[in-house]
Amino acid sequence: MGVRRALYSDYLASLSQARNAFRSLARNLEATAPERELIARDSFAPCYGMRYQMSITASKEVFEASEIAFKRLRNVRDLAAAGTLAGDEAYSGGRAEYEDSLSQLRSAMRRDLGSDQASA
User: Fold this and answer.
1) Which residues contact 74 (CB under 8 A, 6 or more apart)?
2) What angle do CA 13, 71, 36 make, to 5 degrees?
3) What are 10-50's pLDDT values in tens digits?
């Protein structure tokens, strides 16, 4: 259980760091198209290694939820890389979809770790 708890925490941190980078990028009016692409890809790269760890360690429910969150965040990455700004409806919609999937992922993780059970 300790291994999963650490992995889940690390995975959430990885997603959060990438999400914060995309938020900054979506507010950056100075970056060129090649810079946006590089920043977005580099910011998301660490999530891939964590994704593979999730695929072999997480419970089935958590892994499935993690894949949805990963793919939705990848969509946000692609929007930020393409120059979509934070005020754009496409960006805010993609961000909302990611936030919803992240909430589902955290719930699945808590269930898997028994964190949602009442204390005795």
Assistant:
1) 44
2) 75
3) 999 999 999 999 999 999 999 999 999 999 999 999 999 99
